[in-house]
Amino acid sequence: MSSRPRFWQYVVLILLAAVFLYPIWWALSSSFKPAADIISDPLSLSGPTLDNYRAMFADVPIGTGFANTALVLLVKGAMTMFFCPLAGYAFAKYRFPGKDLLFGLVLLTLMLPTLVLIIPLLLEMSALNWVNTYQALILPGSVDAFSIFWMRQTIAAIPDELLDAGRVDGASEFAIFARVVVPVIRPGLAALAVLTTMNIYNDFVWPVVAVNDEAHQTLQVVLATLAQDITANRIGADFATVWGELLAAGSIALLPLLIIFILLQRHFINGILAGSVKG
Amino acid sequence: MSTSSISRRSLLLGALSLAACAPGGTAAPTPSRLAAPSVTSSSPKGEITIWNRSGDLFKVFDAAIGKFRAAYPDVKVNHLSVDIGAKLANTLITGTDVPDGSFWDDANIGSQAEHLYDLTDLIAPYREQTAPYKLSVNTVEGRIYGVPWDLDPGLLWYREDLLAEASIDPASLTTYDDLLVASQKLKERDPKARPIHLDKNPFLGQLWLEMLANQQGTSMTDAQGRLRLDSEEYRRIFTWIQKAAKDKLVTHTPYLEPADLASIENGQQAFIPWAIWWSFAPQQLLKQTKGKWRPMPLPAWTPGGARSGVMGGSSFIIPAKAKNPQLAWLLYEFLCFKEPGIAAVYGPNSVYPGGLSTSIPSYLPALDPEKPLFKDDMGLWKVATEAARNIPPAAPIPAWWAKSVDYLGNNLQLLIEGKLSPDDVIAESSKKIQRNLIDRS
Amino acid sequence: MRKAPYLFIAPFLIVFAAFGAYPLAYAFQLSFTRWHGAGQARWVGLDNYLFLLTNPEFWESLANSAVMWLLVVPVQIVAGLAAAVLLANARLKLKSFFRVAFIAPFVTPLVAMAQVWIVIFDQDYGLVNYVLNADIGWLTSTTWSKPTLALLFLWKTTGFAIIILLAGLQAVPAQVYEAAALDGASRSRQFWSITMPLVRRSIAFLVVIQTLAVFQMFAEPFVVTEGGPYGSTTTAGLYLYDHILASDLGTGAANSFLLVLLVFVLSVVSVRLLRAKDE
């Protein structure tokens, strides 16, 4: 199988890579073009200009969106990164009464469409007087089932002897987790970090519902509102300008994640390669 | 502009959060009735928060509110530009950060009455002078819940030059059949002509259909919420559409999107039966055919029938949980029923140097054909105010109206495309609206 | 030792009880009532379920999702496997570039890319029609709306599939192939008799994950097509949302549970089918 790759194999891979990258490149580069050129000559490169960005910043509170997303990401992300590996560890390496039942709960949660819970959750937020609060954005959906499941798979691969060696030293259960398990699953944790960041950053349906004041809008809510405003106002509006603003907003939203991903890509991919699909 | 853009997307949040009262919890409270402000103190005092839609209209109202403050110097107004379609319903129900008053599409008022102040007593003095259509869409079970703001009469926009070349006298277009004859004539002169605009956007198409129905004194449902699509009036409209499409007299494009604009500019379209707010196109968008468009009353469905109907519109509401409802009423009374207020909104201003000409007030004393509030070079004010006096009343708009676009609005498109017959449209739409919307409410 | 696993799982259980179990039970009870968000809920027994099961629109929404499934899953497995096989070659150059390129779309925010899709596939001024010199209603005709949406989904998630499959492939020790080659097995023979059985687990995992995702698909049609034209992209997830939109909350809840049941059955069936071949 490891014969030398043929020329055509490179061609196929390069073409495929182009298909995957081009829409991102097109959105980024077009956002710096004069609006009229986006429509009249979508393939060319012209400019660069910041006009689309200026217009977009004037229209939407994207700064507030970034700040709120950052806050939610920090708190919710920290909860996930701490509690999910811990729960995954319990499911992977302990025997205790009720384990199957509890793990069944995790699997069940995996299968629920988010939409099922939205109405009752909203009612709950209203009863708790949590509408328009950060806790409404952070708590529901934190410590999620997928991350626990993922961590269980990863930790299950650690040989028991390693843990037993820790126990002999008289370390506490938590100390074994912190000193033995965590170092071993570091690639898996990196993958989890990227996935979690991505999920929280891109989460859209719940934040849109849970928050209806501008002060708590997350980035995705700002984006969705912008798209909606633009579609609503595009009746009669100049198409080119509208698209320019959309592309500017889209680009600015995708850049941070793309940069984080490129910085962490090795860990992320190795983490998936190491941890996935053992069960 | 009164184009309400209720779509699946914009309703996301509004409708979702209708949920926010526990079922079986607090029973719907009897609506709070708002009484006239006690004018014991000579000058009312306080602070109100007012929501408005964003865009140019916000700037217009902002200036008008400035005039209000001059009249009531002790009332402080926080005028906010808000995505009302997405946020107001949520806010009304959760009761968090409720404004004292808000702009709202007429289509939403009927379904939200229980969260709004009953304004019947306050509006009573102006009732006789308000367009009957606007009162009817703001009325639920005999009580009024919105301060009627704009009136959006339907007009027939036509190409003056093309009609003159074909020696068609606009005054002779008194029925919709006349319109077909004239279109045929235009097409004989120019085989590329498809003179009549029928809209390709299902939502706007349905809004347009309701204008034609309103013209005949009917609407999708009656005051008791019963469906009345299966009627002579609707059949008349659908049969006319079918004929126009079959005879290839129709340009079927989405409202003022590029394809539409192109076919307007190249002379393919000559008749656009649409609300007054189409005025935006000749005033701001069109280049080649700028100055060639004129408005006239719509043709009638039957000889001597009404020459206009309403397409879209908005009002102002005061939430039952408002902190200063009486001051909000003072503001809306000023904007809707007082001469300086009306003039401030519709008259020349920094945004529209000629004045706001995409709708007219619904307060009839302001509609003097000889005393235009806004300036335009198409004779729009005179035509629109005369058409407005002709508009039949309607029924409250059902809560599920926007949702019915999936059935009626889509079927209307299929009719235009020749894929459904008038009877199909009526039967299909009625069946589905009844089963999926009315029976489930 | 006794208490430790429970302590480790406790955070998950607390969040689940408060923001999972409670709303779930609530939604279940709601599914037997007629309720519009205000006033008294009315008990209607199985009426909501019967309404859905006898309603052609419900079945159409499932059919739409089924078509989306057909457009997405087989293509993704075949293309993903092909790319993964090429990537698995140890002597391939530029390997990490390809991996990053393939998975980059996976980390882009959906709302932003959905808007880019709207712009790129616009009938009048979009890039695609410009390049093809065509006038195709990619998002506005019933013929093309599903494939165009499926393409967005494929573009976004195939990279992830490739990495998962790659993980499966790398579990195959190189010696196995060498032995097979010595026995004179042809390349294609090697693929079918060695590679396939070993990646079958990864494929099963992917099929389950993507079946869940396709049948719950909501954000893509919601942002890009709003379910149109003529309901052709009203997927099962979007149809469920339509009840909520019409504030017919009982029916919405009933629809959710029917969907959960369907997804559950589909997952079990696909796991069984892929496993059956093993024996």
Automatic annotation (TrEMBL), chain A:
Q: List the Pfam families.
A: BPD_transp_1 (PF00528)
Q: Give the signal sequence positions.
A: none
Q: Where in the numbering of this chain does the ABC transmembrane type-1 domain appear?
A: 66-264
Q: What is this protein called?
A: ABC-type glycerol-3-phosphate transport system permease component
Tell me if Transmembrane is a UniProt keyword of this record.
Answer: yes
Looking up InterPro entries in the UniProt record yields: MetI-like, MetI-like_sf
Provide the transmembrane region boundaries: 7-28, 66-89, 101-123, 246-264
Where is the protein found, in the record's own terms?
Cell membrane
* UniProt keyword Metal-binding, yes or no: no
The organism's place on the tree of life at top rank? Bacteria
Q: Which UniProt keywords apply?
A: Cell membrane, Membrane, Transmembrane, Transmembrane helix, Transport
Q: Which organism is it from?
A: Nonomuraea soli
GO CC list: plasma membrane
Give the family this protein belongs to, as stated in its UniProt record.
Belongs to the binding-protein-dependent transport system permease family.
**UniProt-listed CDD domains:** TM_PBP2
Automatic annotation (TrEMBL), chain B:
Q: Which UniProt keywords apply?
A: Signal, Transport
Query: Taxonomically, which superkingdom?
Result: Bacteria
Q: What Pfam families has UniProt attached to this entry?
A: SBP_bac_1
The UniProt record lists the keyword Transmembrane helix: no
Q: Which Gene3D superfamilies match?
A: Periplasmic binding protein-like II
Q: What span is annotated as the signal peptide, if there is one?
A: 1-27
Q: Give the coiled coil ranges.
A: none
Please give an example of a GO cellular component term from this record: cell envelope
The entry's localization annotation reads: Cell envelope
Q: Which InterPro entries match?
A: Bact_solute-bd_prot1, SBP, TAT_signal
Q: Tell me if Transferase is a UniProt keyword of this record.
A: no
| Family (UniProt) | Belongs to the bacterial solute-binding protein 1 family.
PANTHER family in the record:
ARABINOSE-BINDING PROTEIN-RELATED, SN-GLYCEROL-3-PHOSPHATE-BINDING PERIPLASMIC PROTEIN UGPB
Protein name per its UniProtKB record: Lactose/L-arabinose transport system substrate-binding protein
Q: Which organism is it from?
A: Nonomuraea soli
UniProtKB/TrEMBL annotation, chain C:
**Cell compartments where the protein resides:** Cell membrane
What is the membrane topology here? Multi-pass membrane protein
* Record bears the keyword Transit peptide: no
TM region(s), chain numbering: 66-88, 100-120, 153-177, 198-219, 253-274
Top-rank lineage group of the source organism: Bacteria
Q: Which UniProt keywords apply?
A: Cell membrane, Membrane, Sugar transport, Transmembrane, Transmembrane helix, Transport
Q: Which PANTHER family match?
A: ABC TRANSPORTER PERMEASE PROTEIN, INNER MEMBRANE ABC TRANSPORTER PERMEASE PROTEIN YCJO
Q: What is this protein called?
A: ABC-type sugar transport system permease subunit
Q: In which organism is this protein found?
A: Nonomuraea soli
